[in-house]
Design a protein that fits this description.
two-stranded antiparallel ribbon
Amino acid sequence: MSDMFFHWAFVAVFVVFSVIRAYYHRLADRTKGRAEYREGRLHIALRLLFGIPFMLTVAAYMLRPSILDWARLDLPVWARWIGLVLGLASVPLIGWVQSALGSNFSTVLHVRDEHTLVTDGPYRWVRHPMYTALYINLLAAFLLTENWLIGGVFLLSLTLIVASRVGKEEQAMLEKFGEQYRDYMQHSRRFLPRLRSV
């Protein structure tokens, strides 16, 4: 299979994934009410430090893949097919996550008066499926582009952002929902569902 096929597969997956997030972000922005922001300076700095270069790098790759040939790895074709499967899987997953969150979604950590505790959809099993979907999508990007800059470096940056934020998210939920959230934590995992023995 040609490089061009995997290039356009990456572009399609990335664009659809991004459009889904943008659509739900726009819907959530229409929600009114008092908001208490919990975004720390470190997290804001990390998002800017890694987010802007990531988008510029992806845009450059989309328009002219050869510009990043210096960061290219020679992966076997089967690995790129796995990337395609992961990329295709990440699209309905992010749609499911965003749909379950509804107006509770925000890229900025905050708590609103109208916030509700979401425990349906993927949140039935996992407290942070959004991060799971982002990891799957980035791993797909790495395999489809076979580019360590697009994949490896930004997978590391996402890990740093998640590590700096997830504890604060859970603390905010505990303060907002108290025992209800504490009980939810007992029956869910952070990123991956519990594997039950048969």
